[in-house]
Amino acid sequence: MPKDPTASSPGSQSSLREANRSRIIDAVKQFGGLTQVELAAATGLSTATVSTIVKELAVAGVVETETTSRSGRRALRVTLARQAGLVAGIHVGPRSLSVALGDLAHDVVAEQTLPLPADHRADTTLDRAALLVVDLLDRVGTDLDELLTLGVAMAAPVDPATGLLTVRGALRGWEDTPVAQVLSKRLARPVHVDADATLGALAEHRLGAGRHVQDLLYVRLSYGTSAGLVLGGRPHRGGSGAAGQLGHVQVDPAGPVCRCGNRGCLDTEVGENALLDLVRPALGEVTLRDLVRLARGGDPGSRRVLEDAANRVGQAAATIVTVLDPQLVVVGGELAQAGAIVVEALGESVRRHALPHRFAPVDVVAGGLGPRAELLGALELARSHTDVVEGVAW
Known about the structure:
Elements: H1 10-31, E1 34-35, H2 36-43, H3 47-59, E2 63-70, E3 73-80, E4 86-92, E5 96-103, E6 108-115, H4 122-139, E7 147-154, H5 179-187, E8 191-195, H6 196-207, E9 216-221, E10 225-231, E11 234-236, H7 267-270, H8 272-283, H9 288-296, H10 300-324, E12 328-332, H11 340-353, E13 363-366, H12 373-383
Helix pairs in contact: 1-2, 1-3, 2-3, 4-5, 6-12, 8-10, 9-10, 10-11
């Protein structure tokens, strides 16, 4: 009798089982914890297959299960086992340094934020970051042996090939610092680096306001303006890692020279210096946070400055919306803490300047993760580079 060409060989069955294990673990890593029914829906596997593999992974110590209640029914919730290790996230911003430890079930177990001076030095800041990681590990009763990997969010675009910043002036003095190599040498752990707006977009997609969509634009309004993209459920970084540099879109060919060296970039109109220059005659020496606080408190001048800035950013963001047609625009960063003052003005501007859509006009919403989006995105970056199963084929 001739052999059935559709019959699977033992080798292919083994490969299929490993692939199914990988799909289940990846789904748990992405969503933090799912019932077995939800796992079946997320992976496309049968509930019987999911149940069998979950039992194997639980015996191997890769996942943990607990009884929970969903919609009045008892179910088995699956999470990654804590003993699988910890990851660290670092956000290097223009004026602050944030560090967090997280487990593979998407829980943050410790975090800390420190202020930084303007134009802070790369070596000093990275030394502080490494020390904070060690300090947080000690705080939770463990050490570097349990740390799997680190993700770093930089307030500048990063070249994935070299790990160097791709735009001069974005973080002055950091251009020639290979951030991943420096931190990896200090902590003896793998380090992965990306732009903070990209990681903010990733976090909002996986954990925040964009969990229900596959395509989103994340607009980060901070000391400078940037954007992150998630397309087809994956971060889009561009060929050199420089995608989303909204603040360096030229809006006035005769405008002032930007830190990047070009003339009339959007940041020369809506960046920190431009906004504070507008309010200094009335308010004196204030900070960006002061401006947001005053606007929220009803100060008419502060509100007008932020509304005008949001309108200007919305015009630039509308071009991206027209070209890429995302399902959602999420607004984050320090200026987004002004709430509806900024978000509504930006949304109205996007809808006014983008190509009108008859059936599904783009929604513009505030981020769901607040000022922690980039830090949580750094943790997501680290998680995406972990092998959670040691000694288990999957």
